[in-house]
# Entry
Amino acid sequence: MPTIKIPAPLRPYADGQRALILPGRNVAEILEEIVTLYPELKKHLYGDDTQLRPFVNLFLGDENIKELQGLDTPLTEGDIILIIPSIAGG
Amino acid sequence: MLPELSHEEIHRYSRHLLIPDVGLKGQQKLKAASVLVIGTGGLGSPVALYLAAAGVGRIGLVDYDVVDYTNLQRQIIHGQSRLGDLKVESARDRMLDLNPEIQVDVYNEFLNSENAFEIAEPYDLIVDGTDNFPTRYLVNDLCVLTGKPNVYGSIFRFDGQASVFYAKEGPCYRCLFPEPPPHGLVPSCAEGGVLGVLPGTIGSIQATEALKLILGIGEPLIGKLLLYDALDLSFQTVKLHKNPDCKICGENPEVTALIDYEAFCGVPSHDHEEGSAGEEWDITATELEARLKEGDDLLLVDVREPHELEISNLKGSELIPLGQFASRLSELDSSQDIVLFCKAGTRSTRALEIMASAGFKKVKNLKGGINAWAMEVDPSLPIY
# Structure
């Protein structure tokens, strides 16, 4: 199963988890799993519609899923999805 | 013509001159270079110190703040003896003590759309060491519009990011983050905390990138985002692409001048906690004390994280951390008078917004949080 890494600003909404191994044949499915598990995450990832919020970037390996097949990007065993948040601290 | 180096300078920069990639010519390039550092806080501290030590000839510092006690956990350019002094002056003095051969310009100003072009004009590149979204978008747009590289770094708790946004050769900050997160979604360091050494790591990377750009050596982080996780000590680099629809550096840019960034981001251009939900919703610590003394039946709800209770606590309060607030709203009774509080009033304001939109009316925000209570009512409690 693929792994999804949760960045620090989102961890309070995911019971403090840093990474989760979840089922999902593509990015949309693994996101569905994670928001089912942690419903509070939903508003941080999605806007009012089903689109990802513009400041949420998901990467598979070193590539943004926008450059792959977006939410339909297929996942295989051992893939790691990174959520890269907008942070502003300095 | 590059400037000559004096014998003192040759002696001082000996360890640079020994590296073939730098050498005498590289050191002369550093002397001829000018860098503007926005922010003299966590990131700005190591950036300014290392650029000064490296012999960058002209360094500008922009900050409007004064040195605060809570800065000293990470802002190593400042010191205890400079508490209350202007940050730009404290930083300049430390830099000139480290290297009197350089020129340090100080701008004790709030960087905004009116003064940004004039301040940035004399500098070759800009280092973004700010602590808030509006200034980050301002710095990005300023760099795109003036064609200067933006050496970016950002931090939160144990996580850091660094990149070089240079629209002439690659993507800009808006290509990656077209819009800022809505108010309240991403906590700042003042709310969420930051490991003191983290800006040391990320700021040092920013200083490295600035020096590489000046020297024209190596591969800069253009088109790449470096992600650092201090907890598992991992560095990962991901690819960034120019967004053809980018509103400032895309094919048909909509943004052709600096805009109102506070309005764009919906938050003020600083990382100071405001602590107020507005007059109608606030209760001050002194007012709360009076109501409790009168025996009012108030439920105090603490929206901080459990570990913060060990620092300070209000007797009889109930803990519902902000992260769980929406899902635990059913535990609260809308007929009961409720006072929400956190450290300084920012998180409790968010909790109040959640309650107000769920129809709760008898709810107040403790203005300034438990820190205000410690200051006004109970000095036995520490302030953090």
